[in-house]
Structure formats: structure tokens, C-alpha cells
Design brief:
The structure is a homodimer of 128-residue chains. Chain A has 128 residues and is of the alpha+beta class. Chain A has a domain of 86 residues: Arc Repressor Mutant, subunit A, CATH 1.10.10. Helices cover 47% and strands 14% of the residues of chain A. The longest helix of chain A is centred in the C-terminal third of the chain and has 27 residues. The N terminus of chain A is likely disordered. Chains A and B meet through helix 1, helix 2, strand 2, strand 3 and helix 4 of A and helix 1, helix 2, strand 2, strand 3 and helix 4 of B.
Chain lengths: 128, 128
């Protein structure tokens, strides 16, 4: 039973807009790396920046590619095969949208923390 | 082979500090709700704020309680049993730490996007 001074609406903290494909900590790293390198990154650079194994990076890239967020190019550097990964235009837009949303959530949460400084033992508990 | 103008260090985008227990979108909602209500929320309020089923909320709360992030109190409102959920001091500190880290990541990513405005087709790809 909410006290009358609580203006909260149902679903206010549902955060449904947070894209599950993007909201994974290693993907957040991959996408930030790519956002910072608009010409793309070769597989090994990306792997090192994000501290990922080949297998993990491949799995995340496959998921991101399936959603059209990254593009993957095969090429050669001299005789060595190379893989280049870039953010697609759609990927860039979706990631920027996600970041904007996340920024708002963090801002709201930190504002809430300032408005409600510290938990107090026993307050609000009303066992009868 | 990174060009010399890339100051990136290995692991720069590993985001290892992002706490996996907290970095889950529904838990982010639960913790933000609790941060905004320092006296705690009863189960049904929390459920509505986060748009969760009983089962899902119970599962997330069990995980958060196991990590010492929330405390769960059983009480009565008249004849009706009630459950009160509150953020622990440790939970509050860990969540605030997480939010601070996330704030930095979002800020860095958005700055990176500003510094590298848009992806260009074909640039950086050097198939030989």
C-alpha cells in the first residue's frame, strides 16, 4: 500500500527500453571500442581492447552481426588473413540511443540517491 | 596491426569493473527503485514499479540477497502478510559505485562518438 506522497507510476523502473542485445557488459565494451574507431578495428585489436578470447569475441560478434549492428569483413594484410569489424549505421544509431537512455537512468538513480541519503534501520517496517 | 596514432591500451574496453550481479536490466530497475525509496518498498509496489512477475522478482531478490545487497523483511499489514525490501548499506554503496562507473563509460562512449562522427564505407578496409 503506497503512501500518498509517492508519485511513482507502475512500470517507472521497468527499463524496458534497455536493449538486451546491447546491455551485456562485454558487448558494451565491443561497441564502445567500435564507436571510438569509426574505420573499424581488426579482430585482434578488438580482442585485446576488450580482453576477450577468440571464441567469446566471435560469439558476441555473431550475435551483433545477426542483429545488423556490426559488419564483418575478411581481407589480407600481406599474406595474413585479417578480419575487420565495423559498426553499421544502424548499430551506431541503436548504440547511441541505448547510451542516451542509460545516461538518463544513471542520472535519475544518482539524483534519487541524493534525495534519499541513507537507509535507516527499522523505518518503514510496520509489522502488526 | 594498430596504426601508431592509436593510444589504446589492451583491456581499455574490458569493463571488468562492471558488476555482473548489478548489470542486469531488471536488477538495475529494482536497485534504482530501492535507491529512490530509502525506507524500502513492499513486494507489490516493487513488482509494479519494475513490471515484473512474482516469480521473476523473487528470483532477482534471492540473487541480490545472496550477495548481501538487499534485505527482506516479513511483516503484517493488518491480517495480510507483507514483504518489505530494502537496500543494505553495502548494496547502496556497491550500486552507487556501479552507477559511477557506468556514468564514466557512457560519458567516454558519447565523447568517442563525437570525436569520430560517422562510419564511412570502405575506409580502413585494405584487402590485398
Amino acid at each position: 500500500m503506497p503512501p500518498p506522497d509517492r508519485p511513482d507510476e507502475a512500470g517507472r523502473f521497468a527499463f524496458d527500453g534497455l536493449d538486451r542485445v546491447l546491455h551485456e557488459k562485454k558487448r558494451l565494451g565491443i561497441l564502445t571500442s567500435l564507436l571510438a574507431h569509426r574505420d573499424g578495428l581488426v579482430f585482434n585489436e578488438l580482442k585485446e581492447l576488450c580482453t576477450l578470447t577468440d571464441g567469446n569475441l566471435n560469439r558476441h560478434l555473431a550475435a551483433l552481426q545477426e542483429d545488423g549492428l556490426v559488419e564483418i569483413w575478411k581481407g589480407m594484410n600481406g599474406r595474413r588473413p585479417q578480419t575487420l569489424v565495423r559498426l553499421t549505421t544502424v548499430g551506431r544509431e541503436r548504440f547511441l540511443g541505448y547510451l542516451g537512455l542509460l545516461e538518463g537512468i544513471v542520472h535519475d538513480a544518482l539524483s534519487a540517491a541524493e534525495a534519499a541519503p541513507a537507509p535507516q534501520k527499522g523505518v518503514g517496517l510496520n509489522p502488526a
